[in-house]
UniProtKB/TrEMBL annotation:
The protein's name in its UniProt record: Hydrolase
Keywords of this entry: Hydrolase, Protease, Signal, Thiol protease
TM spans (from-to): none
Listed Gene3D superfamilies: endopeptidase domain like (from Nostoc punctiforme)
PROSITE patterns linked to this entry: NLPC_P60 (PS51935)
UniProt record similarity statement: Belongs to the peptidase C40 family.
Length: 170
């Protein structure tokens, strides 16, 4: 009985410390990005301003975070593709539905040759993958073993499985 109580106490302490550290890490970078007019996207090597820049900067804070299909909304220890986009857009005042299929129905259609940083890009038919266009043919998204990563959508698998894009930033 004492062992059970000790385990529960240690679990509670661990969760509390993890939550505190997560909030501390997320709090400072967001304020810094929001205060700048232009945010440079390192992978895209272009200057992205405003809400798109804030979304991309926040997303980059999670590069390497593991992929977990069906990850819970609001959890930042793991993401699936649509929980990742839902989270980073939500933190920037844009509410998105939970699934990539549902996300592909919001905002307005964008032709592939008119993509802008911050646009949502979708893959497969039927749609079941979403990423964030960050400029210069690059997308930030999460899948499999790399977790949150940046990929070139104009070559290889991502190019041949591209389906559509939506603009949700006004």
């Amino acid at each position: 009985m004492k062992t059970n109580r000790l385990k529960k106490s240690l679990l509670g302490i661990t969760l509390s410390v993890s939550l505190f550290v997560s909030i501390s890490i997320m709090g400072a970078p967001q304020a810094a990005h929001a205060a700048t007019a232009n945010t440079t996207t390192t992978a895209a090597s272009t200057s992205v301003s405003g809400k798109a820049g804030s979304i991309i900067a926040l997303g980059k804070n999670y590069l390497g975070v593991r992929y977990n299909f069906g990850a819970q909304k609001g959890v930042t220890s793991s993401f699936d593709c649509s929980s990742f986009t839902q989270y980073v857009y939500g933190k920037n005042g844009i509410s998105l539905p939970r699934s990539s299929q549902a996300q592909s129905q919001v905002g307005s259609y964008v032709p592939r040759n008119q993509l802008q940083p911050g646009d949502l890009v979708f893959f497969y038919s039927p749609i079941h993958h979403v990423g964030i266009y960050i400029g210069n043919g690059k997308i930030m998204h999460t899948y499999g073993s790399p977790g949150v990563t940046i990929s070139d959508m104009n070559s290889g698998w991502w190019s041949t499985h591209y389906k559509t894009a939506r603009r949700v930033i006004k």
